[in-house]
Amino acid sequence: MTALVVNNLCKSFGGLRVTTNVNLDVGPGERRLIIGPNGAGKTTLFNLITGELTPDNGSVALFGRDITRMPSRRRTHLGMARTYQIITLFARDTIERNVMLALLGLSPLRWNPLVAFDRLQHLTAQARAALDRVGLEHIAARPLSETSYGERRRVEIAMALAQNPKVLLLDEPFAGLSIDERQDVRKLLLAIPRDVTIVMIEHDMDVALDFADRITLLHFGEVIVEGTRAEVVADPRTREVYLGE
Amino acid sequence: MSGPVKSAANGMVTARRMATGVAVLALIAVPFAIKEIYYVNIASQILLYAVFALGLNVLVGYAGLVSLGHAGLFGVAAYVLAYLLAAGHGHVAAILAALAVGLVATAGFAALALRATGISFIMITLALGEIIWGLAYRWISITNGDNGISVATRPQPFGISLANARGFYDATLVIFLVAVAATAIFVRSPFGAALCGTRDQPRRMNALGYHVWMIRFWAFMFSGLLTSLAGILFVYYNEFISPQALALTASAEGLLMVISGGAGTLLGPVVGAALVVIVKNVVSAYVVRWNFMLGAIFVAIVVLMPEGLVPGAVRLTQTAWRAGRRKKPGAASRARPQP
After folding, report:
1. Chain A residues inside the 8 Å CB shell of B218
2. Domain assignment present for A24
3. Co-location of A104 and A171 in the same domain
4. What is the ipTM of this complex?
């Protein structure tokens, strides 16, 4: 069964069409890269897929289930997780607590007003395990306000991974990172097992191209080119709108 | 957690528990230490307004939702209690009905106000508070209008009379301590963590699987429960309720208690309530322009401790402690971790 199907998705902001009849068909375990110049509608497409925006037309299906009108939070419970282009974390908390909040989001315990959150040993252990995956376990107790930009990027990924997603949407995970940090995050993403389907927006073609199984090129809200790495890179339209001659 | 860090954390917990124990003992000792009935009554007033401020703080401090209509909720419970008591109903039935109607009113407030956040939320709560005030003022057949409703007696729980100042203080203290304990448990729970998350990053919380609206709704209900309790205490304390208790100034005073003490802290609203009640009732006896003085105090707090008195005092203490350690010869080398 296909992991994620986007069918004729359309979205306008007033008179501006930002997504026009976009179709995506992402197989289970696939690594799909979404590329396109600034303003191509990549993040809007992510927001439509995750339910943060409601499409004007079209549909979204997750493992065969129509989720077009489903609230964002329920999609998360079905196995969809995302990261944000602009890092969106809880600055007053520690790294560990940030990841614990991600874990709590899927737990019925989130409604419990009686037990102490910090004493939920199983959540602490799971958070530590998720931080270990991204190499931050040793600074788990550090307040987020005392961490570097690269560490925060990895916290974002740890939060998404902690939720054991079936489909993971990464919005520019390499943005703002140094060369070394990019390599660290790249290794981290390559280590994610194939039972997780990944759709990723990325500008950095050097790190992103060898990660992708298939690539979709968006331009002015429309899919211009789609195919394997070789097909997309070789396509003259890609060079024209994105890579340059 | 490493050894020294863990022992420091344990030391903090022990110190906090000891401070809590001392504070509770001091509160119990108030009626014995203070001989004048007037000041025992002021202490009762501080405690009942502290319960009100604790309730408001759940929304303002932990949910990030500033309400300017909480005096309306306070008044709904107060009026229901006073009306039923004046109609000849028993205390237990009247208190339960006041809590129930207070919670229903809170649910209505929440359903309407939570359609928005930020300035719009403030304006909706302000409007709702004014509607309740208008009803109290104009629905004369029920509320007796500007004349208010008088209550003849206070209850006698377990045969203990609350008619005197000392008995009433003790009862208010019990309710206050229960409110503080309930709030402490609430904000440290997973639900409390989720609530703080919706304050800081609602969009992210939604993406993490949380029902942001519902979390805010239940926080509003908890806030309404504490506010209703404060309204009930207010009626028994004054043995009277009038529209003045529901006015916008009462909501604003509640907000000042929370903000001046420290929003999002457990102790802050209590300190803020003490400040406002003391200035209004004690300082006003000596200073004619006490309103001016209260305003000046708030301006000073905003300028010097924008985070509020309690977090501000903690910050200043930590700064002074660090400065003291730096001045102490050899302190730096002792503080350095040993290999």
Report:
1. 113
2. yes
3. no
4. 0.92
Q: Does a structural domain hold residue A84?
A: no
Contact B194 A141 (CB under 8 A): no
Q: Which amino acid is at B308?
A: G
Domain end, chosen from A114, A129, A163, is at: A163
CA of A50, closest CA in chain B: separation in Å? 8
Q: Residues A98, A158: one domain?
A: yes
Residues of B in contact with A83 (CB under 8 A): none
Is the separation of the CB atoms in B196 and B182 below 8 Å? no
| Dihedral in degrees, nearest 10, Cα atoms B70, B97, B225, B160 | 110
Chain B interface includes A110 (CB < 8 A): yes
Residue matched to tokens 């004048």? B36
Q: Which residue from B minimizes the CA distance to A109?
A: B190
- pLDDT, one tens digit per residue, over A170-229 is 999 998 888 888 888 888 899 999 999 999 998 777 777 778 899 999 999 999 999 998
**Is there a domain that residue B218 lies in?**
yes
Q: Which residues of B touch A71 (CB under 8 A)?
A: 206
Q: Is residue B92 part of a domain?
A: yes
Q: What own/partner pairs with CB < 8 Å and gap ≥ 24 does A144-148 have?
A: A144/A89, A144/A90, A144/A91, A144/A92, A144/A93, A144/A94, A144/A95, A144/A98, A145/A91, A145/A92, A147/A95
User: How many domains, in total, are found in chain A?
Assistant: 2
pTM given for the model: 0.91
Domain extent for A115: 89-163
Residues B269-323: pLDDT tens digits?
999 999 999 999 988 888 888 888 889 999 999 999 999 999 999 998 888 888 8
Query: Could you report how far apart the first and last alpha carbons of chain A are, in Å?
Result: 38
Please, what are the averages of pLDDT over each run of 10 residues along chain B (339 residues)?
A: 61 82 92 91 96 98 96 97 96 97 98 95 97 96 94 90 93 97 97 97 96 98 98 96 95 96 95 95 86 90 93 90 76 46
Instruction: Kindly list the residues from chain A whose CB atom is less than 8 angstroms away from the CB atom of residue B197.
Output: 90, 101
* Residue contact B207–A50, C-beta within 8 A: yes
* CB spacing of A76 vs B197 below 8 angstroms: no
A38 and A2 both lie in a single domain:
yes
pLDDT band for A70, please (50, 70, 90 cuts): very high
Average pLDDT score over chain A: 92
Dist CA A192 CA B224 (whole Å): 46
Determine the residue type at B55: G
For residue B77, give how far its alpha carbon lies from the nearest alpha carbon of chain A (Å): 24
Task: Scan residues 131-160 of A and list those with Cβ closer than 8 Å to B.
Answer: 141, 159
The count of domains in chain B is 1
**What is the rounded distance in angstroms from the CA atom of residue B214 to the CA atom of residue A107?**
15
Q: How far is A138 from chain B (nearest CA, A)?
A: 10
At B4 the pLDDT is: 60
Whether residue A20 sits in one domain with residue A133? no
Nearest-Cα residue of chain B relative to residue A46:
B207
Q: Which helix (H) or strand (E) segment is A68 a member of? A: none
Name the residue range of residue B100's domain.
36-246
Which chain A residue's Cα is nearest to B216?
A: A111
